Each structure stands twice: as C-alpha cells, then as structure tokens.
Amino acid sequence: MAKALLVIDVQNDFCEGGALACEGGANVAAKITSFLENSKSNYDYVIASRDWHTPADSNDGHFAAAGSEPDYVNTWPVHCVANTSGAEYHPNLDQRLIDIHIRKGQNANGYSIFDGIDENGETYPELIKRLKISHVDIVGIATDYCVRASALDSVAQNLTTRVITSLTAGVSPASVESAIDEMVDAGVTVIPTA
Ligand code: VGL
C-alpha cells in the first residue's frame, strides 16, 4: 500500500507562451512546487509525466495534418516534441521534488500516464504494480485531457484516486466541467485542495 502524487505534463508547451498554452498553467506549476514543499512527506513517490511526441510524425493523428486546423478536441498543434524546450518541465516546477520521470506519447496520443514508460524502460503499469501503489493524487495539465485520462485509468485499475483541481489547468472551461462530471461518475474523488 503506497501513495503517489502524479504530476501530469507540467511542461512549457502547456503553459503561457507554449504551443498549446492552458490558461493558468505557469501558476499551477508554481503552486505544485509549494504544495510539494509542504506535503511531499505525505507521499511515498512523486511521479511526473511528460508528453514526449515523436518529431516529424502525426503521432497517430494527434497532431493536425500540415495545412489543416487543429480542432482542440482530437487534433492539436504540434507540441511537446521530444528533446525540445516545449517538452521540458516548466521552470516553476521544482524538478528536485520529482522521484520518477515518465514519458508518453511517442508515435501516439499518449493522454494517459498508463501509456508511459520510465527512464529505465519500465512501463507505468509495471512500475506501480512493483511499487505497490494503491492510492494516487493527481495534479497538472490539462484537467480535461491528460489529467482526466490518467484519473479514469487509475480508477479502472482499482486505485483510490483523487484529483486536486486547484493544482490543475484546463484547455477549455466547458470540457473541464464535463471531465469533472465524468471523473466523479467513474469514482474519482475530485477536491479543490488536499
Ligand atoms: C494534452 C491536449 C493534447 C494534455 C496533451 O497534456 O492534457 N492535452 N495533448
């Protein structure tokens, strides 16, 4: 029985000035750092994910085709390409507070952390099984996409799952609202603060 904080995709491209900026992203990055400074001891592991898309590839249709507009639901502007500054953690997130780094979205949508792999090549599902993680709190970006997908997969795997909404930022208010409803219906505990 171990408890983890999942820090989802707090990356430059999802914050102000990035390719797929979510309003409030940079502030959320700073608030997650403060939260961890105060609360890291409540967690056995802090696991952070990064979208890490393949360059010069549609990533299974995730990137809008050249010359066509993204719809911001299923297709997106090019973002978080592996080894670019847009894919780096936002500087407001203190990386020293992260124990395990997950990358996801190589040649794929990669919305969920469950599609990710750690620096040793272990898949996220294998990792949480080995570490006996049974409880996760989830923060990060975007509430309505990667946080949502990671939370829904967590409850589906019978993890006790909470999302702390004051430490998240979303793509659009309407889809954040429907994602919260969907997460609650699926059994996620959605709370404003921990
Ligand atoms: C995300 C949209 C597209 C996310 C990733 O990290 O939530 N959102 N790709």
TrEMBL record:
Keywords: Hydrolase, Metal-binding, Pyridine nucleotide biosynthesis. It is an enzyme of class 3 (hydrolase). Pathway: Cofactor biosynthesis; nicotinate biosynthesis; nicotinate from nicotinamide: step 1/1. Its EC number is 3.5.1.19. The keyword Metal-binding applies. GO terms for molecular function: metal ion binding; nicotinamidase activity. One of its GO terms (biological process) is pyridine nucleotide biosynthetic process. It holds the Pfam family Isochorismatase. Residues 4-193 form the Isochorismatase-like domain. The keyword Lipoprotein does not apply. InterPro entries: Isochorismatase-like_dom (IPR000868), Isochorismatase-like_sf (IPR036380), Isochorismatase_Nicotinamidase (IPR052347). PANTHER family: LD05707P, PYRAZINAMIDASE/NICOTINAMIDASE. Belongs to the isochorismatase family. This is nicotinamidase. The lineage of its organism: unclassified sequences, metagenomes, ecological metagenomes.
